[in-house]
Design goal:
Blueprint: H1 13-24, E1 31-37, E2 40-43, E3 61-65, E4 71-73, E5 76-78
Antiparallel strand pairs: 1-2, 1-3, 4-5
Length: 83
């Protein structure tokens, strides 16, 4: 499913996560963003990262619903995926 919405340059990935969660009815902790370069994952943007850093980049951002929630510990953000 594809969703589109307008964001301000000062918005962060956390803002994008909450708007996407609202549209998709998927809890925000179960959404994982990935910046892709062809078939490869280039980066996993952090929630605190501003959207304006994406201006001029050629790498699309995809959001995935994951089975386990994203865990944030202190200022380090990372996805903990267990199999």
């Amino acid at each position: 499913m594809k969703y589109a919405f307008r964001l301000n340059a000062e918005d962060s990935y956390a803002d994008m996560r909450s708007k996407l969660a609202e549209l998709s009815c998927v809890p925000p902790d179960y959404l994982l963003f990935a910046e892709l370069s062809g078939p490869f994952v280039k980066t996993y943007p952090m929630d605190s990262q501003k959207i304006k850093r994406r201006i001029g980049t050629m790498y699309p951002v995809h959001a995935y619903e994951i089975e386990y929630p994203i865990v944030v510990k202190g200022s380090i953000e990372r996805a903990i995926l267990s199999s």
